[in-house]
Amino acid sequence: MGTTGTTGMRMRAIGQDRFGGPEVLKVVEVERPVPGVAEVLVRVHAAGVNPTDTWHRASGGLGTGTIRLGWDLSGVVEAVGPGVTTLAPGDEVFGMPRHPLPAGTYAQYVTSPARHLVRKPAGLTHVRAAALPLAAMTAWQALVDTAGVRPGQRVLVHAAAGGVGHLAVQIAKARGAHVIGTARAAKHAFLHGLGADEALDYTTADFETALDPVDVVIDTIGGAYGPRSLRVLRPGGLVVSLASPAEARLADAARPLGLRAAFMAVEADQAGLREVAALAEAGLLRPHVEAVFPLERAQEAHRLSETRGTTGKIVLSVTH
Fold this sequence. Notes:
The chain is of the alpha/beta class. The protein is built from ten helices and 16 strands.
């Protein structure tokens, strides 16, 4: 994961030395990293905030010692390590380096394998580009790589106004699907603006009885939503759970019913990221950013993220 800087150059980052609530996050000054073989050093302009970040902060999912959070980034290549031929200093890039290993993008600089990044869509600011990688790649890998969504299929997206959900709606629509999203009524206009064909208020209606059968369900919530989602599937239909590895047991319940279910974890994938970038460049994938906080206010960003009521994404803006 790169090497520690040897020139004495320092940078600001967000770190924590214990697990707990947002208050454990603090600004630290650390050595600027140096890119290793096949790596680049990126000057970070913006870093996305994801629910997985808050989970790792609270639970210690990244181990012990001083922990550095964040995977999403958008920025500019500052330097390249030995063996890099695809990127050069000055290139604007975005991506999700190293996931699921630690990346530490809540920082002024970060090293990344060169092939975990792609060029930033010219039509997106760094803030909007930083909102895409992890959430959009989760949606892409669920809808395209796992479900193989085809034109004319009916796709149901739970929590469709959230970080992954609002991008899943757009990706499914770009694939030619009939898209249904669940969200509170106040967010239905937002969903229709993304291209959703139907919107269902989950607080007033049970989706498994209110909807006609669907081919694919993208479940970002977990718990009871998995078994309930089986009831709305057509024969041979698929529920893709993004919530927890525990959801893998749903496949056992689905099989006797002639249905399918799978738990999916997102992976770093340059080819998929290029597809996401192409959709964004074509105007078919528009990340919605609800709030932008300076790096130093990461605590506030995490508090907002943990309300689980955010529309779209939260992003940290990084100054130098």
